[in-house]
Amino acid sequence: MWRGLWSLAARAAHWPHRLCTRQSSGALDPGPAATIFALSSGQGRCGIAVIRTSGPASGHALRSLTEPRNLPPARKASLRLLSDPRSGEPLDRALVLWFPGPQSFTGEDCVEFHVHGGPAVVSGVLEALGSVPGLRPAEAGEFTKRAFAHGKLSLTEVEGLADLIHAETESQRRQALRQLDGELGHLCRSWAETLTKALAHVEAYIDFGEDDNLEEGVLEQADKEVRKLEVALDAHLRDARRGQRLRSGAHVVVTGPPNAGKSSLVNLLSQKPVSIVSPEPGTTRDVLETPVDLAGFPVLLSDTAGLREGVGPVEQEGVRRARKRLEQADLVLAMLDASNLASPSSCNFLDTVVAPLGTRNPSGSSPRLLLVLNKSDLLPPEGPGPCPDLPPHLLLSCLTGAGLHGLLEVLKKELAAVCGDPSTGPPLLTRARHQHHLQGCLDALGHYKQTKDLALAAEALRVAWGHLTRLTGGGGTEEILDIIFQDFCVGK
Ligand SMILES: Nc1nc2c(ncn2[C@@H]2O[C@H](COP(=O)(O)OP(=O)(O)O)[C@@H](O)[C@H]2O)c(=O)[nH]1
Ligand SMILES: [Mg+2]
């Protein structure tokens, strides 16, 4: 039995190597670090600007620029006179913060200078820092790269941080913050842990299959873990497009017959004159796309040509483009003139566009539909009159704004369905990279299930594990050894 344990330990000792060779996107080598500095707040005149440094010479840089020259207490704001170390010329009276590593954003010694935000102050301090030996200007993203290299952030957290910096809508901010908090990383790590267990079971069977001391049913246990994981991954992948829409914007397309008020609605929702509004039918021909924040969700709103047949070649091309854009829509705002529902163009639109979209297929791959009856101000007080075949709809007047509040409420619900609600539910996959690795993991689990050869099965689990760890950009393998001794009673 001891020979068996040793061989298991030796095998496990090789895993890190085998697994790590696949981790091309794993943790970076921090390397011999220069000390970097940069303006971390926005460019231009402002009240306060934040300049920071990271690296071993940070403390020296702080002492070189400040009076008195001793380091301030760690992580406490201190008011200091900053001066140019070459000439002694005063530059600013500023708050400075000293973050000795590893308790800092990058894990290295860091300093923050909160200076007055005038361009001359900022450039004076940056120049002074550049004159301190061992300091150089930071490259784009270098602070975050160092935080990743020192294990302060996982890859998904790095992505969350980037998304948070770029977030323009409330939902994007919420989603990014959740990812920065490591929710997606935690989930992937718990999946990787499940795989580690399954792998440990299979490897143990390979080594001790004949051994009476091995617990019974280890392979069945591994199969069970894999099945559970497959279900979880599958559910997440089905939702994958939602997170990506939340990050880059949902495609909302306004369509309808000519003169229904499509361009008026696009201008109303975007609060700017994106499209020409005119009583002349066929005014809009190109697809006009504008990014808007709709009820807190990022949206790419498209105005399109009115759908009608038998028009000149230019408008025909517009209609072709409109139909093509409809195919790419996540949500369709179908618009009709409420005072003109019985017209041939309205009936034709209801039959050829609204009815097919209304019967959504169960896989959810067709876009969602919202029918809006515009120009309610032209209706008699008793309403639009009998329209028995009309699917659920909303009344709106782009002219008076009546019904706009209700439309925005419904849009919020529809967009939450399209993008996923970042305040609830499991963390979303916001990038194609996440989707790629989860799919890779799922494919590898498929191979695991198919093969009868235990060595190939173990290899498939390693491939699956590799995908999950690459998703978060790290992950050690000593954990496999730990689990073997924790979870098993070999030789008990
Ligand atoms: N009475 C009324 N007229 C509207 C309303 N919305 C748009 N219109 C008018 O309808 C005409 C066509 O509007 P437009 O937005 O260009 O329609 P599109 O062809 O569907 O893009 C214009 O003269 C608008 O001023 C509305 O709610 N009430
Ligand atoms: Mg138009």
From TrEMBL:
Q: Which family does it belong to?
A: Belongs to the TRAFAC class TrmE-Era-EngA-EngB-Septin-like GTPase superfamily. TrmE GTPase family.
Gene3D superfamilies, sorted: P-loop containing nucleotide triphosphate hydrolases, Probable tRNA modification gtpase trme, domain 1, tRNA modification GTPase MnmE domain 2
Q: Where is the TrmE-type G domain?
A: 249-416
Q: What is this protein called?
A: tRNA modification GTPase GTPBP3, mitochondrial isoform X1
* InterPro entries in the cross-refs: G_TrmE, GTP-bd, GTP-bd_TrmE_N, GTPase_MnmE, MnmE_dom2, MnmE_helical, P-loop_NTPase, Small_GTP-bd
PANTHER family reported in the protein's UniProt record: TRNA MODIFICATION GTPASE GTPBP3, TRNA MODIFICATION GTPASE GTPBP3, MITOCHONDRIAL
Ranges that cross the membrane = none
Q: Which UniProt keywords apply?
A: GTP-binding, Nucleotide-binding, tRNA processing
Q: Provide the species name.
A: Galeopterus variegatus
